[in-house]
Amino acid sequence: MSPYLKGGRDTAKLSNRARYIATRPGVEVLRGEQQDQPATKKQQAYIQRLLCDFPGAEELLEYEDYQASPTMQHANAFIRQVQEDFAEPMSRMENYLNYVSHRPGVQLDGEHGLWCAGGKVRNLSQAVREVAEHTGSVWTPVVAIRREDAERLGYNDAASWRELVCACAPEIARGYKIPLEHLRWYAAFHRKEDSVHIHMVVFSSDPKEGYLTKQGIRQVKSAFGRRIFQQDLLHVYEQKTEYRDTLGRDAERAMAELIAQMEHGQFRNERLEQLVLELAERLQNTKGKKVYGYLPPATKALVDVIVDELAKDERVAAAYGLWNQMREEVCRTYSEQVPERLPLSKQKEFKAVRNMVVREVLQLGQGEHPTADEIVHMPTPPAQSGVPHEVYPPQQAAAHHQRTQTHRAVSHADTARCVLQL
After folding, report:
1. Cβ neighbours of residue 53 closer than 8 Å, sequence gap 6 or more
2. Which helix or strand (DSSP H or E) is residue 285 part of?
3. d(CA 165, CA 227)
4. Quick one: 254 exposed, middle or buried, by C-beta within 10 A (0-12, 13-18, 19+)?
5. Is 208 in contact with 171 (CB distance < 8 Å)?
6. CB 388 within 8 A of CB 381
7. Could you give the CA distance from residue 333 to residue 330 in angstroms, rounded to a whole number?
């Protein structure tokens, strides 16, 4: 997260620090060198300094390129981008809007390239003065995607980005803790050889409002990432739903097999058998509604243990693994960090599995539960998304997933490349 601009006495300190970082040895002297050679020790040391001084710089597209191929060219590109996204906003509070609306690469609309929710800014001087004289916090986020993604997804001009920012405005306001009616923002669209991006200025009409947390950053990143890659993510959501449904069927089948083996005295897992018998006894002595959400905490904990034992079944484990992969792919569209993989019993989206365990144990000994073969031939409930999909046997699921991923419009890494610098 880049430092935000604050009206008052801190401005001079920020400006001096930014100018030092932008002009110290290691910046200009790098230009003109043999770009395909490995990065120099001076470049490497300077990059480490930038990463320490500007948390969030590691998420730049240019840093990803540098990590993949640490050449002089990529090092130089990263250093210049840090200057543009972090150092320049700190040193130009007085005329930052004028800077971003005229700098090289901006899409001009007449004499400048600045726009807001209402379209082109008609009075640039007034907007510049509004920001320069603002006594509260002013944030300068940058949103960037790769050039090929911008062209493929239709985000290669200022008009499409203005529509995008307007659509994201409610999430931006929530992320910055600013009432929507007080949210003020300006932006300018820039093209580069390998990427496109917008420079934004965000603040509240009330100088006392607005602050940004890590959760707020995630909210804003998610808002942009989900909308930019909406078409790419549609397939991912379909796959995620398919794996969720497959897991539900496989877990129910495994539970039916377990119950049948217990009734015929053929069960070999003494621990799981004891857990099921204990749950059956608890449920018999439980009053009220016998669904997971209404059970006493100790009984819920017992159900959770049984669910996690079922998750060790090869079929269930395979489906849960694929579901987690799809979930992580969605998260990578707006975050470098993927969520922790939780035990099946703790995953909220699989509450139905916990209720299924309760239902099957209640039917234990009553002969009312379906057999494993009956479950295999049960019709598949429609996905919540309303999109029909094929269902593959567990042993084919991984292979099908790999084939499908090969034919996607973009790779996993490409989908993840919506970068938001706050």
Report:
1. 21
2. none
3. 10
4. buried
5. no
6. no
7. 6
State percent of the chain over pLDDT 90: 16
Structure tokens at 72: 């002089």
Amino acid type, 337: Q
Residue 99: phi and psi, rounded to 5, are -65, -50
More confident residue, 84 or 118: 118
Shortest CA distance to 314 belongs to which of 397, 241, 381? 397
Is residue 94 over pLDDT 70? no
Longest Cα pair distance anywhere in the chain, in angstroms?
A: 85
Q: Please name every residue paired with 335 in a beta bridge, in sequence order, or none if there are none.
A: none
How does the average pLDDT of the chain come out, rounded? 75
Instruction: Examine the pLDDT at 352 and tell me if it is beyond 70.
Output: yes
Q: 3-class DSSP state for residue 120?
A: strand
| 152 Cβ neighbours under 8 A, 6+ residues apart | 409, 410
Residue 316 one-letter amino acid: V
Residue that has been written with the tokens 């973009």 in this structure: 410
Using CA atoms, how far apart are residues 14 and 53, in angstroms rounded to an integer? 12
Q: Give residue limits of the domains in the chain.
A: 8-91, 93-228, 232-412
Task: Quote the pTM value.
Answer: 0.50
Query: pLDDT (tens digit, 9 = 90+) per residue, 34-71?
Result: 667 888 888 888 888 888 877 777 877 788 888 888 88
Query: If you count DSSP H runs as helices and E runs as strands, how many of each does the chain have, helices first?
Result: 18, 8
Q: Give the pLDDT band (50/70/90) at residue 377.
A: very low
Confidence grade of residue 288 (pLDDT, cut at 50, 70, 90) = confident
Q: Which of 174, 242, 282 is nearest to 381 (CA)?
A: 242
Q: Which of 84, 88, 82 is nearest to 15 (CA)?
A: 88
